Amino acid sequence: MKNFLLMLMLFVPVISAAAIDKVERWDVFEIELKGPETGNPFTDVWVRAIFSRGETQRAAEGFYDGEGIYRVRFMPEITGTWRYVTKSNVPALNDQKGEFTCVPATGDNHGPVRVAYTYHFVYADGTPYRPVGTTGYGWAQQPEEQQNLTLKTLSGSPFNKIRMMVLPHAPSGETISCYPFMGDPELKQWDFTRFNPEYFQHLERRISDLLDRGIIADLVLFHPYDRNVWGFDRMTADEKDLYLRYLIARLGVYRNVWWSLANEYDFLHWPEKEWDRLFQFIREHDFYEHPRSIHNGSKWYDHSKSWVTHASLQNYNLTGGKGFRERYGKPVIFDEICYEGSHMEPTLNLSAREMVYRFWQGTVNGCYVTHGEAIDQQFFRRGGVFHGESVKRIAFLRRILEDSPPKGLDPRAPNWMWWNVAAGQEGRYYLLYFGPHNTSQWQLPEGGLWQVAVIDPWEMTITQPETTFAGGTVVDLPGKPHMALRLRRIK
Amino acid sequence: MKNFLLMLMLFVPVISAAAIDKVERWDVFEIELKGPETGNPFTDVWVRAIFSRGETQRAAEGFYDGEGIYRVRFMPEITGTWRYVTKSNVPALNDQKGEFTCVPATGDNHGPVRVAYTYHFVYADGTPYRPVGTTGYGWAQQPEEQQNLTLKTLSGSPFNKIRMMVLPHAPSGETISCYPFMGDPELKQWDFTRFNPEYFQHLERRISDLLDRGIIADLVLFHPYDRNVWGFDRMTADEKDLYLRYLIARLGVYRNVWWSLANEYDFLHWPEKEWDRLFQFIREHDFYEHPRSIHNGSKWYDHSKSWVTHASLQNYNLTGGKGFRERYGKPVIFDEICYEGSHMEPTLNLSAREMVYRFWQGTVNGCYVTHGEAIDQQFFRRGGVFHGESVKRIAFLRRILEDSPPKGLDPRAPNWMWWNVAAGQEGRYYLLYFGPHNTSQWQLPEGGLWQVAVIDPWEMTITQPETTFAGGTVVDLPGKPHMALRLRRIK
């Protein structure tokens, strides 16, 4: 190693190649280089590294991290020895070489999440990933103490995904001390070609904290709530590209990152084609292929477009989930279904019961659902602690999901019914939720022997008789609304 | 009057021109003629009457009613003296002349119902008609005693519309004693060119009974539940036309008749074009322009087609109502939203609470909703009595509707909200239903003075403080789910 090639231990899981030349599969390998500080290092300088292992080659873009430090990050997806060489328009950053060994993943490292079986997700190692998300848009820009509280809350929660903004979010006029771009906060004038490394160092620390807890950071890249606040929504097309390149180089190496192009994208009033372009830009530059979607206000984006990996919906018609799956042929996540609370705003006062029922409706429609809470300090905005009554019931549902078939729950209309209250795997497993129906009896599918469990999603009880039942048997149910049923064929 | 021109008093409101030459506007005037009984009078003979009053002329088709009796019926829509002359291919029925006086309507006679204000209905005299329907598909083919019980039940109910089949309906294998066509019930062979007058005489008596009670007969002309029962669904195109002509001539004079082309039309698997054709046939032949629609199973008919007067939906997404109105630009009636009950079939075990909540959801989306009950003998199939818990709550809602603005409730998003829980007339009246939301406060629209009532749709209470509130005031609500609010500007 040459002396201007500095290697530093940053924070988990970024691995310094100097300290250790072994990197776990899907962890982050980083090259740190010292280069020019003059001019505009964000635009004047480019650096990338070509990583190769046998026939496989990947060109990872680097980024400037302030104080003359340039970094190139890489998430190896194949075990074995990787070699690299850097390329740059600056001699000091050019033609730097090295190697490291990618060793198998251990522990909870299952790799990044991919779409699988058309409507579902798995980790790269094949472990099922069943999104059970929550929302904390501005949690990472809150005071440090509050952020730590949020992390503690998430550790003990059922949630394995959180929707969060990359850019600041302060709908209630909060001030923040650190901005993503260099500029004048008073005058709301920003230089979108100069990032503030401190802001993004902090953000990636939080992404890493989430990774430690097995939680996906569903990163919202743009949002419409900045009008007349700071004006970060006023980037030109070139500035957006620069911003996306920076995020991809810097954050795209974290295996728990998803790209959500926007929250309520339509409220930004950008042309549809601009969103198409941004999607394609990310698809082109993010060779890790992190899941990509976009969240709507009143007008839905067309999620059938090839660059969208899954539908991310704000919608309250959870029973329509099966139809939305069919429309898009992709996984459907109801990423906003109102927030539990009693605020005056209609979106912010959903009853806890309805939050729980919507989770069940979405589930038996073969979809995924995202929680949000608007009580007291409003976790969905600021993080903190949960006060609501739905979280523990969502945890109860998640335990049931973890114990369901690995290939996911698909809407299944066994031949004795014509409309959808059931999801499962044909002839083997069904989870049914009857919603507002007084279902008092249910006929098991024909054939085999079945284990039957009556589930009360609100009371969190699972009543499972010792007896098993022959296929075709009519079993009795409580005959009251909001009950669920699990049928598992055991023979 | 010639001696072969017999005039008989049939039953209310068919008025015999012999007994009385005065007919109330929108009542039925009938000419009875004696003609041939040989051959096939249904197809060999045609008779019509040209009614004229000043410039206005109407050609009313007659029909054969058995035993050599031919009738031509007419519903006068303009007061004054009408003259008529008959035309026929049979001399005995041809060139018969007469006149009668159409006098103003009295009492509860408001005329037929028409679409008005794009999304609503009014009677011909301008009185608002707000459909609050129920379902009794086969009630008119039940034993006489049961039919009388049904009429008694309806008299004391909130319902002003009932969906009912023209053709027999016996999903549970009931037998009937009287068939609509001549033929062999054992062999299931029918002559679709020969109607059974007795069957239709009975049916029209029931329609008249409903008229006496102010109830619309939403006549379902075809249905898919006859497969392997009698085979009345096997008419050819020509036979369907003959059937429709017969119904229009015979029943189309009743001002409380609506045409519903089918129940779950898609389950008949006729080509879409055939339905288009039938719609156009009715539009062409029914010059009274009774409301026309069609009810779906899984696949919706395109209600935006010009011959459809209103959308008749089987759908359970009542909160989607506003969107359906916008899609079609017509009134939307949720004509099947599941049935209250606890039957094993999922459509037949809706909880009473949900039935009531769906009525409210539909209402605040500017739509109309139809009830159905599947308890015990299953009113929705056989009529009888109501056992459910929803009917009295629907009556409560109807009283609120009758006290609402005459031009109907349209979804209104006052500027303090962006999604629809409110319907009314801008700046004057709002009815809000918060569904599963814990709404604890609500801000009144700006300006004026408002009367505020908190409504509990299940407990059937209206809490209306003596105090009035200035526009813009924030009023307190119970903060629990399933509450409603009425705002009426009084100054």
What helical percentage do the residues of chain A reach?
10-25%
CATH structural class of the largest domain in chain A? Alpha Beta
Unreliably modeled segments of chain A: 1-17
Task: Please tally the β strands of chain A and state the result.
Answer: 30
Strand residues, percent of chain A: 25-35%
> In oligomeric terms, what are we looking at?
homodimer
| Structural class based on helices, strands and sheet pairing of chain A | alpha/beta
Largest interface (C-beta under 8 Å) = A-B, 37 and 36 residues
Give the terminus-to-terminus CA distance of chain A. 62 Å
- Determine the mean pLDDT of chain A: 93
Rg of chain A: 24 Å
CATH superfamily annotation of the largest domain in chain A: Glycosidases
Annotation field: number of helices of chain A:
9
Strand order of the largest sheet of chain A: 1-3-6-5-4-7-8-2
Looking at the overall shape, the CATH architecture of the largest domain in chain A is Alpha-Beta Barrel
Count of the separate structural domains of chain A: 3
The profile of the biggest β sheet of chain A is: 8 strands, mixed
| CATH fold-level topology of the largest domain in chain A | TIM Barrel
